[in-house]
Amino acid sequence: MQSAEIEDVGAWRAIVLFGRNTATYKIALAHCLARFVEAGATDVSMPELAEVFFDLYAERLTAGRPQLAHAGRLTVMERVVALYRLGRLDRDAAIERVAAEAFDDVLPRFHTLYRGTSGAPFYEATPAGLTLTDRAFTVLGGPERSALLDELGARWDLLEGAFALMREPGELANDVRSLYLARGYERTPLTGLRPALHGYQHGLCFYCGEQLGDDVHVDHVIPRQFVAHDQPWNLVLAHGFCNEQKSDALPGREFAEKLVARNERLVASNHPIRERVIADLGTTPEQRRRAIGRVYADAELAIPYTWDGVRGYHPATDPFYKAFVRGLVR
């Protein structure tokens, strides 16, 4: 991709991964934009937007998961879908209500990040509807489309899990394969974390820094045999080949620093598991850095060899290794 395209994709990911989310509307709107781009629609009327928005939530709410952080409250979409299922609104009336009530907050705030905005917009909103910009077509019609859609789905999953966590007591299960609450929600396989972590690593392997392909593993940076848990702060994406080469060895200390930086990107976002990372590692960047440093130092005593030391190369800088991995990914 050209540098401008990379910047556009980064801006989109910033909205999805670092935007403020007290409900799931922003993620649903992003799905709508992707569908309109796929259909080649530049000008979208409010009824057209409301219809796609309604259909997304009608399907999504079959699982009964919360769409809002506040206990005791429902979003407009939850209320409209409930009335539709009870037969108190027909489809046309439900869509009209969505058009009238659902977009007052999300349309003007879609591009708002945790701090500031994402720059050039992906659409212009008018009372009549939306006009998608070239930037929307560049990003959502480009080579990253599939990965970005996967990230949207994962973000929606994680928001629902976080909202459930806020509504009832309990903790995220220690085994990250149950990233939803243990009570009342389908358990998510570890592989379900891949799209969520993808954006925070910019689509690159944590170890060699090359683009991820189809064979992607979720790996414990500090080996699981030592930490004996699957907490998100220690999980990264890696090529299957890199993960297998690392095996149960401890990576070099520079990877601990890289893990610190990745976690700070996650905490700086409004990502649903940021509170889990803060609870596990500390409330300030320095506390979190020290916590990882302590675990790594203890692991050095228990695992007397590092990956780069025993293998004789550094995966992020060795040109032969990087070229070999690029050949595998193609």
Average of per-residue pLDDT values: 82
Distance between the termini: 16 Å
Instruction: Report the count of strand segments.
Output: 5
Name the assembly state: single chain
Brief descriptors of the model:
two-stranded antiparallel ribbon; single chain; 3-stranded antiparallel β-sheet; 2 domains; mainly alpha
Structure write-up:
With 330 residues, the protein is mainly α. The protein folds into 2 domains: 3-140, no CATH class; 169-329, no CATH class. Helices cover 53% and strands 6% of the residues. It has 16 helices and 5 strands. It has helices spanning 3-18, 25-38, 46-60, 76-85, 91-101, 106-109, 134-140, 145-167, 193-198, 224-227, 240-246, 253-268, 274-281, 285-302, 307-311, 319-329, and strands at residues 43-45, 123-126, 129-132, 216-220, 235-239. The protein has a 3-stranded antiparallel sheet. Strand 2 (123-126) and strand 3 form a beta hairpin. Helix 3 (46-60) packs across helix 5 (91-101) and helix 12 (253-268) packs across helix 13. The longest helix is centred in the middle third of the chain and has 23 residues, at 145-167. It is globular. The two termini are 16 Å apart. The model is unreliable at 169-189 (pLDDT under 50).
